[in-house]
Amino acid sequence: MPWRINGEHNNGPHLPRRHRPVPGAVHGAGDRLRQAAPHTWRPLMMAWMTWLAGIATLLVLVYLVYALLRAEDLE
Fold first, then answer.
1. What is the DSSP string of 10-45?
2. Which of 55, 36, 58 is nearest to 47 (CA)?
3. What is the C-alpha to C-alpha distance for residues 62 and 55, in angstroms, rounded to an integer?
4. Domain of life, per the record (predicted)?
């Protein structure tokens, strides 16, 4: 397979220039498509998940410092 086809890079699978979409596949479909309702609970859910991750990280760091201090005392 050549490095360049018609002076352009071959960057993997693509539609050829002569490709024509199926008539009526996209045009006129706007009235048949429904818009999804926004999720109002998502920011609140992300907030408590962020706090939970922060608390868990803090607990791990506190435990590591405690284990390090305890290991120095055992020496």
1. --SS---TT--PPTTSSTT-TTTPPPPPP-SSHHHH
2. 55
3. 10
4. Bacteria
pLDDT in tens, 22-45: 665 555 555 566 677 766 666 777
Task: Give the SS3 label for residue 3.
Answer: coil
pTM attached to this predicted model: 0.42
Three-class SS state of 5: strand
Cα four-point dihedral sign 33, 39, 43, 49: negative
HSE value, Cβ hemisphere, 13 Å, CA-based, for 64: 6
